[in-house]
C-alpha cells in the first residue's frame, strides 16, 4: 500500500495518458474511414455520370472503326447492248471502250459515249474469254480470264501487236500513270510495268483489317482506286498506298427489279475526268448509268 500511495500521482498520469492515446487513435481511424468512403462515393458518381474520366474510359468496350457508305446521284442512263457480257469499261480522250467476255462472245469494242452505239468491234477467238482492259499511250491491254495470256492492241486499228503472259486468273485492269494495276479475283492487286508487264509490287486490299476478296473491275478516280466486288452491287474505295478500303458505294438502287432479274453482275466502272462523270455498267444489262459521287456519306 505504501508503494501505491507513493506512486499514486504517476499511476494516475499514466492512466490518463493511455486514455488520451486510445481516444486519439480512435479518432484517427474514424477520420481515415470517412475519407475512404468519400473517395469511393466521388469515384462512383463520376462513372455514373459518364464523363471522360480515365476510369470510365478504361471500362468502355474497344471501338471498331466503321467504314462509311457513300451515295451516288444519277445523271442519266444510256443504252447498252444487253448481249454484252461486260468485263471492263474505260474512257480515253472522251471515247468509251468496253471488253466483253464468255467463250465465243468475247470482244473489244469502242462505243459512242453519248448513245452507247458500237462504233468499232473486234471479236476474239472462241478459245479466249475476254476480261479487263486498260489503255496506256496508244495501246489497249486485255486479259483473258483463265488462259494466262493477255493481248495488246493498237488503239486506233485494234490490230493485235503482241501478247503477254501472267499466272493465275486475269480479271480487271486500270492504270495509275505509273503501273498497270491488275485484279485476279483475290484480295491481291498486281502492279505491272507497262512495258515489260512484269510485277513491280503486290498490294492486299483490306477492310477493317480483313482481306477483301473477289476484287474485279477497276478504275482510278481522282487518285483513288475503285473496285467492284464480284457478285455484289458494292464498290470499294481503296487507298492506293495502303490497300485500305476507305468507303463503300452501294449501287444496288440503280436497277429496277426487272432490270436486276435480266442483268448479270455489276462489272463496269469508267471515269471521264473531263466531264467528272462515272459510268457504271452491269453484264447483259440494257442500260448503263452516268453517276456522280455525293459529297456526303449516305449514312
Ligand atoms: Ca474500268
Write up what this structure looks like:
- About 16% of the residues have low confidence.
- By secondary structure, the protein is an alpha+beta fold.
- Helix content is 20%, strand content 42%.
- It folds into two domains: 42 residues; 229 residues, Methylamine Dehydrogenase, Chain H (7 Propeller), CATH 2.130.10.10.
- The strands form five sheets. It has an eight-stranded mixed sheet with strand order 16-17-18-19-1-22-21-20, with no helix packed on it.
- It has three helices and 22 strands.
- The site of calcium ion has 9 residues, from strand 2, strand 16 and strand 20.
Please give a handful of descriptors for the protein shown.
22 strands; 4-stranded antiparallel beta sheet; globular; 8-stranded mixed beta sheet; 299 residues; alpha+beta; 42% strand; binds calcium ion; 2 domains; Methylamine Dehydrogenase, Chain H
Output the CATH homologous superfamily of the largest domain: YVTN repeat-like/Quinoprotein amine dehydrogenase
Shape: globular
Helix content: 10-25%
Q: What is the terminal separation in angstroms?
A: 97 Å
- The number of strands is 22
Largest beta-sheet characterization: 8 strands, mixed
Helix-strand topology string: HHEEEEEEEEEEEEEEEEEEEHEEE
Bound molecules: calcium ion
- Please state how the strands of the largest beta sheet are arranged side by side: 16-17-18-19-1-22-21-20
Structural class by secondary-structure content: alpha+beta
CATH architecture of the largest domain: 7 Propeller
Overall mean pLDDT stands at: 84
CATH C-level of the largest domain:
Mainly Beta
Count of the domains: 2
Rounded Rg: 36 Å
Query: Uncertain runs with pLDDT below 50, 5 residues or more?
Result: 16-62
Percent in strands: 35-45%
Q: Helical segment tally? A: 3
CATH names the topology of the largest domain as: Methylamine Dehydrogenase, Chain H
